[in-house]
Amino acid sequence: MNNIMKKCCLSSLFLILSCYMMASLALEQEDKNQASLANYNPVLSADFKALLRTADVAAGEEFFMRKCSSCHDEYKSTTHGKGPNLWNVFGRKAGTSEGFAYSDAMRQSGHTWNFATLNYYLTRTERAVPGRIMNFRGIRQDKYRAKLLLFLSTMNDVPPALPE
Ligand code: HEC
Questions:
Q1: pLDDT tens digit sequence for 51-102
Q2: Is residue 15 in some structural domain?
Q3: Which atom belonging to ligand 1 lies closest to the Cα atom of 139?
Q4: Which end of the chain is more exposed for a tag (fewer CB within 10 A), N or C?
Q5: Beta carbons within 8 Å of 99's beta carbon, 6+ residues apart
Q6: Residues 22 and 95 in one domain
Q7: Residues 16 and 41 both lie in one domain
Q8: Ligand 1 pocket by Cβ (under 6 Å)
Q9: Whose Cα sits closest to atom 17 in ligand 1?
C-alpha cells in the first residue's frame, strides 16, 4: 500500500468514527430531551393497533423467552427474579409489585401500565423512565413489540381487550 492510500484509509476511518460518535451523542441527547412517562401520556398509532390485531401470540412468547426471561418469568407468582414479576402488569401502577426493590425513577414515575405505556417503555426504556435500573435498551421494530405486548397481555388474571 502506498503512502497516499494509507492516508486515505486513515482519514476515512477517522470520518466513520466521528460520524458514529456524533450519532450516538445525538441519540443520548434525544433520550434526554424526549418525554418521560412521568410527564407524557403516549397514544398508540392506528398502524400499531393493526399490528397488535394480527400479531402471533406464540411468536410473542418465544420473543419473551429470548429477551426477557433471564430477568422476568412468565408465571403467576409472587416472587421476583432480577426484575419484578410481570403477572398482572397490565393495569398495575409502575413500580408497585410488592417485595421488589425498584429504582426511585420507576417508583416515582406515576403511570399505569397499559398497551400504550408498555409500548412506549419497551421502545426505549431509558427515555421512558430516565434512571430505570432495567438493563435492557429497547426494541426498535414495531412488529416485535406488538407480538411481545400481545403475549404480555395474556399474563393476566383477566387479559385486557386489545385497544380499539
Ligand atoms: C437484565 C434484566 C432485565 C431484562 C433482560 C428485562 N428486564 Fe424488565 N425489569 C428489570 C428490572 C431490574 C426492572 C425494575 C426497573 C426499575 O426499578 O427501574 C424491570 C422492570 C420492568 C417493567 C416494569 C414493571 C413494574 O412492576 O412496574 C416491565 C413492564 C418490564 N421490566 C418488562 C420487560 C420486558 C417485556 C422485557 C423483555 C423485552 C424485559 N423487561 C427485560 C430487569 C430486566
A1: 999 999 999 999 999 999 999 999 998 899 999 999 999 999 999 999 999 9
A2: yes
A3: 38
A4: C
A5: 78, 79, 80
A6: no
A7: no
A8: 67-68, 70-72, 82-84, 86, 89, 94-95, 97, 102-103, 105-106, 113, 118, 122, 132-136, 148
A9: 102
